[in-house]
Amino acid sequence: MSLKLLTIVAAAALALTACESSQQNTGATTGTTQTTTAAPSGPVAGSQEALTQQVGDRIFFDFDKSDIRADQRGTVDKLAAWLKQNPSVQLTIEGNCDERGTREYNLALGERRANAVQEYLVARGVNASRLKTISYGKERPAVLGSTEYAWAQNRRDQFVVR
Amino acid sequence: MPYVASSPLTTAPLTPRLRAPARSLGRTLGRAVAGVALLLTAAVLTVGGAGSAQAQLNVDITKGFVDPMPIAVSDFQPARPELAQTGIDIAGVVGNDLASSGLFKTIEKSAFLQTSQELQNGPRYGDWRAIGAQALVSGSVDLQADGRMRVEFRLWDVLAEQQMTGLAYMTTPSNWRRIAHIISDAIYQRLTGEEGYFDTRIVYISESGPQNRRIKRLAIMDQDGANHQFLTDGSNLVLTPRFSPTTQEITYLAYVNDTPRVYLFNLNTGQQEVLGDFPGMTFAPRFSPDGNRVIFSMARAGNSDIYTMDLRTRKVERLTDNPAIDTSASFSPDGSRIVFNSDRGGSQQLYVMNADGSNVQRISFGEGRYATPVWSPRGDLIAFTRMNQGTFYIGVMAPDGSGERMLSSGFLVEGPTWAPNGRVLAYFRQDPADSNGKVTSKLYTIDLTGFNERKVQTPLDASDPAWSPLIP
C-alpha cells in the first residue's frame, strides 16, 4: 500500500515538474512582455487564457487529501497576486477527484479541495465575493485513462474565469 | 383429481387503482405524462377439496448455493386465437423472471409432453415428472366482454400431485407484462416463503461518451430491462437517483446552471422540483422509510454534514455537525436509526446513529475504506462499497458491524441497492478506461449469498441503480 502510494506521489511529482516548468516558461515570457509594452498577440488581461499562461489553471492534490501541497503553494500564491492585479475577475474554483473513490464521498472531497484554495486566497486578501466553488467529484476527469498518472492529474482544483 | 375450471372461491380486489409507468417523457425535463389508471383485480383459484393440503415443495434461499429447482412454465392457453402470442409472451416473462433469481431452472418447452391445451384439464403428473419438472406453471388468457383481459395461472407440485396456488387477474390487455411479473412474484413467494421482487422497476443513470465528455441521463426500466425510458435529455449532469418507498417519486442530484442540488422527480406527472433552497451543494439524497422526508448531505465552506427535510412542512433538521465529511446517509426500515459514511476517524468508515443524530457508533473495522452504506428493507443487513489495496468490493454486514462478507469485487464496483425483499442487490461495475477515455459501466444483480451475479441489459452504459419498492 505504502509502496503504491509512493508510486502515485512520484508520478504526480514528475507530472507536475513537467507541467509547471512549461507553464513557468510561458508565464515568464508573457509577464515580461506585459510589463514592458503591450504584446501584439498576448492574451487579454484578466482572461482565462491569461490566467492559464501567467499562473496555471490548476493545482494537484494527494490521494484522499484536500490540503494544499507544498509544491502547489507557489501556484496559489501567484493566483492570489494575479487576482489582485485583475480586480474585476470573478473566479470559480472547481474541485475534482480521481475515479478511485465512491461518487458521493468524492463530491464532498472535491468540495473540500475547492474550499481549501478559496480559504487560502481569502487569507491572502482576495475578496471572498469574487470567488465561487463547485465540486464535480469524479465526474470531470482532465486526463483520460485509468492509470496512476491520470489519477494524479485528475485530483485537482481547476481555476475558471467567469 | 378433478379440476374445476375458473371457479373463483373468493374474489379479492388487489389494488383498486394502479398507475401505469409514465412513458416517453421526451427531451424536456418537465413535460408531464399523466399515468393511466388501470383496474386490476385478482381472484384466488383453488381446486375443490385439495386446496388446503400443505405441499412439500419449497426452496430455501438462505443456504447459499442451492441447486436451482427445475420448473416448467407452459404457454398460457389462449381462449381465442388472437391471444396466442400474449399467452406465449406471459409464459416467457414468468420463466425469465424465475430463472433470473437463480433459484429456478426453466425446462425447455420443446421437452414438454403435455400441451397447454391439455393442461387446462389438469396436469398429467407423470408426463411432467418424466422431463424432470418439480414444479409446473399452467395458465390461460381470455378477453372479457368489457374489453378487459383475464389471466389466470396455477402452480402445481408435480411430485405431491397437487395445486400449490392459483390466481386470476383482470386488467387491460396492454398490462400483460405487469401481470406476468405479478404472477412471478406469487410463484416465488409460494415456493420460497419470501416476498417476490419481479413487479419492480430500476431507476439508474444512463451513460455514454468518453470519460471527459460523459453524457448522463436519468433512466428507468422494469427490473428485467423492459419498458426502458429516459427521463432526462443529458443536458444537465445527473447522479445518484433513489426511489421513494411509498410514492412514484425519485430523488436525485442534478447540476442545473452549474449548481449541484437535490431534486425530486414525480414519475406520474413528469414534474421535477428542487428540494428546498439551500446555500450550498446538496447531494447524496435518500427517502425516509415513510417517504415523508429526504435525508441528504449539504456542503458548507468545504464541510459536508447530514440533514433531513420534511417534504410536507419543509422543516429542515441538521443531524451531524462535525468537521469531517458526513455523507451517504440511509435510514433503517423502522426509521429509528441512520447509517452513514464519515472520515471523522481519519478515513472513510461506516457509522450508525439514532434518527436524531445522537449515539454515533462506528461499525466498520476491516482493512481499507468503506462507503455508500444502504440499510436493507428487512433491517437485518447493511450493504456497502469497500475499497482496499486498489480493489473495490460490494459487501454486507449486520447493523452492529458483525458478520461482514463480500459478495462481489472488481476494479470498480459501487453503489449497492436492495431489491424490496432484501434478498437481491443491484450495483454497477466499471472497467478501467483506455487511453482514449473509452469506459464501460454496467448494472449487475447478485443474490445475498453472493451467487448468481447477472448483468442487467441496458441500451447504453449504466451506473447508480436504485431499485423501486413493489409497484403498488
TrEMBL record, chain A:
NCBIfam families: Pal_lipo (TIGR02802)
Signal peptide: 1-20
Listed Low complexity bias regions: 22-42
Subcellular location per the Swiss-Prot or TrEMBL entry: Cell outer membrane
Subunit and partners: The Tol-Pal system is composed of five core proteins: the inner membrane proteins TolA, TolQ and TolR, the periplasmic protein TolB and the outer membrane protein Pal. They form a network linking the inner and outer membranes and the peptidoglycan layer.
UniProt KW Lipoprotein keyword: yes
Gene Ontology annotations of biological process type: cell division
Family listed: Belongs to the Pal lipoprotein family.
GO cellular component terms, semicolon-separated: cell outer membrane
Domain OmpA-like: residue ranges: 48-162
Annotated region (Disordered), positions in chain: 22-47
Coiled-coil segments on the chain, per record: none
Keywords for this protein: Cell cycle, Cell division, Cell outer membrane, Lipoprotein, Membrane, Palmitate, Signal
Organism, as annotated: Tistlia consotensis USBA 355
Membrane topology summary: Lipid-anchor
Record's function text: Part of the Tol-Pal system, which plays a role in outer membrane invagination during cell division and is important for maintaining outer membrane integrity.
Record-given protein name: Peptidoglycan-associated lipoprotein
A family per Pfam: OmpA
Main subcellular location of this protein, as a coarse class: membrane
Database matches in InterPro entries: Bact_OuterMem_StrucFunc, OMP_bac, OmpA-like, OmpA-like_sf, Pal, Pal_lipo_C
UniProtKB/TrEMBL annotation, chain B:
Superkingdom to which the source organism belongs: Bacteria
GO BP term, example: cell division
Localization terms from the record: Periplasm
Coiled coil: none
Keywords assigned: Cell cycle, Cell division, Periplasm, Signal
Ranges where the TolB N-terminal domain occurs: 57-164
GO cellular component: periplasmic space
One Pfam family, short name: PD40
Annotated signal sequence range: none
Main location: periplasm
Assembly description: The Tol-Pal system is composed of five core proteins: the inner membrane proteins TolA, TolQ and TolR, the periplasmic protein TolB and the outer membrane protein Pal. They form a network linking the inner and outer membranes and the peptidoglycan layer.
Record family assignment: Belongs to the TolB family.
Function in brief: Part of the Tol-Pal system, which plays a role in outer membrane invagination during cell division and is important for maintaining outer membrane integrity.
This protein's name: Tol-Pal system protein TolB
Organism of provenance: Tistlia consotensis USBA 355
Gene: tolB
